[in-house]
Design brief:
The complex is a heterodimer of chains A (225) and B (238). Chain A has 225 residues and is an all-alpha fold. Chain A has helices spanning 3-21, 23-42, 47-70, 75-79, 83-88, 93-123, 131-156, 162-189, 194-223. The two termini of chain A are 22 Å apart. Chain B has one domain: Up-down Bundle (Four Helix Bundle (Hemerythrin (Met), subunit A)), CATH 1.20.120. The chains are: A mainly alpha (225), B mainly alpha (238). At the A-B interface, helix 7, helix 8 and helix 9 of A face helix 4 and helix 5 of B.
């Protein structure tokens, strides 16, 4: 089997499964919506102060979304006894990782694109001018988050207390991604030129490359079990 | 066979490591707390640095040891290497916690804060949380071989934090001071350099000694569990 056809078919399988039952995306979306509502109740601040903390609120919501969505990434295979099929596939196991990673990336980006208008609605933001930079920042940060989340999902799906272990393992190592994303989002929301926060996006890009490459290489050892 | 020879080697040399570490740490504490002069700006508070800096350096050294042993384990699959990984993780957590605590004690009189979200402190706290996650993962995985592999994977991914800790003071505007020993030169007074060196080397050798002892303990524990399992199964089939 060709490497890229395995990547394509695994991503397509996840997208098709999600399109049919919409279980993962809907739980991610409604959880994030609850987080946004709680934040909007909790902070009744003047617009200037709200603008300062807005990037943190956005990425906390996306972070919790990632925990809900990415944690269940391999659950469907474990519940249907399909992990053995993955182990028997005559391709580099990294192809399976890339397929799952692409599926998770698309789910996360879909939820983020739907959530941004809700931030505008509940917090009275004006995002139109910064739409493209925000899209770029979301995409770059979500790549890193999905890369780590997919790897740790495979790691924790086979152990007891996986719901506890997944966030405990994911959150510390994704802190550099969150810091970069929050700082870049702060720059974009303040209307500053791209050159003033470009270095944060470059930093996110470096982390993305490191996490994807290392996870791709190391995934084989997880599937041996 | 390899494991038995390795454990024999550890048993032969561990006492020497312990002895040298004790001498160096005693000398370092004496020179640091008694004979060295106080700092011009910090006063007597600087003496905490003779414990804090070696602890932080040893925490990073022990995580690097964990990283190397993890790669070695994934390559060779020897259980004694996994014992060394487990030992290194526990010791790394100990030294990281010690570094955070002593840094906090130094920070209160100097920065008027027990904690600041400075890049170096934040990345060092991430190291602490990664090690906690590592040890929790070991506890939750009942299959020893699976636990060893998954923990090795986590340790390799977590290694990204070490360069961030080291270079954070240069990449970002940090409250934490930059390295005193670098390619730009040494910016420590000579009478402070002596206790720093003695404590730095002493605590590193102490880590090596503790690693040797702990690895043997884990190896023997593993051996005992294996023998208990064999005895139980023999009893069942008699």
């Amino acid at each position: 089997m060709h490497f890229f056809s395995v990547v394509k078919w695994i991503a397509w399988k996840d997208l098709l499964s999600e399109y049919r039952n919409r279980e993962n995306i809907s739980s991610m979306f409604f959880f994030a919506l609850n987080v946004i509502l709680i934040f909007s109740f909790s902070f009744s601040l003047d617009p200037e102060t709200l603008k300062e903390i807005m990037p943190g609120i956005i990425w906390v919501a996306f972070g919790f979304t990632a925990i809900i969505g990415l944690g269940k990434s391999f659950l469907i295979e474990v519940n249907n006894d399909c992990m053995e099929y993955f182990q028997c596939l005559p391709v580099p196991k990294g192809a399976i990782y890339l397929g799952k990673f692409l599926g998770n990336l698309l789910f996360m980006l879909t939820v983020e694109i739907v959530l941004f208008p809700l931030f505008v609605l509940f917090f009275n933001l004006t995002l139109l001018d910064q739409f493209l930079p925000l899209l770029l920042i979301s995409a770059v940060a979500t790549i890193g988050l999905s890369a780590l989340g997919t790897l740790f999902s495979a790691l924790t799906v086979q152990i007891r207390a996986r719901e506890v272990m997944f966030p405990i393992l994911l959150l510390p190592l994704s802190v550099p991604i969150f810091i970069g994303a929050v700082e870049a989002t702060r720059g974009a929301l303040s209307g500053a030129p791209l050159s003033s926060y470009q270095h944060w996006i470059e930093l996110l890009g470096v982390f993305d490359v490191i996490f994807v490459v290392v996870s791709f290489w190391i995934f084989e050892f997880i599937l041996d079990y | 066979m390899v494991a038995t020879r390795f454990i024999g080697w550890l048993r032969r040399f561990e006492k020497w490591f312990g002895f040298v570490a004790a001498i160096l740490i005693a000398a370092g504490l004496y020179t640091g707390l008694v004979t060295s002069s106080p700092d011009y700006y910090q006063g007597e508070v600087v003496r905490i640095m003779y414990v804090h800096v070696p602890f932080v350096q040893t925490a990073m050294l022990s995580y690097f040891t964990l990283f190397v042993c993890s790669i070695w384990y994934l390559w060779k699959r020897e259980s004694v290497v996994d014992n060394a990984c487990h030992a290194a993780a526990g010791l790394s957590l100990f030294f990281t916690a010690g570094g955070l605590l002593t840094g906090s004690i130094w920070g209160k009189p100097t920065w008027n804060a027990w904690w600041v979200w400075d890049p170096r402190l934040t990345s060092f706290a991430i190291l602490f949380l990664t090690l906690v996650g590592y040890l929790m993962l070991r506890t939750f995985l009942e299959d020893k071989e699976k636990g060893a592999t998954f923990c090795a994977i986590l340790a390799i991914i977590g290694f990204i934090d070490l360069p961030i800790i080291h270079f954070s003071v240069e990449w970002w505007r940090s409250l934490h001071q930059p390295s005193s020993i670098s390619t730009r030169g040494i910016s420590i007074a000579p009478d402070m350099m002596v206790p720093f060196t003695l404590m730095g080397v002493g605590v590193s050798i102490l880590f090596a000694y503790m690693l040797m002892v702990r690895t043997q303990m884990l190896y023997l524990q593993h051996l005992l569990e294996a023998k208990q399992g064999r005895l139980l199964s023999e009893g069942q089939f008699e």
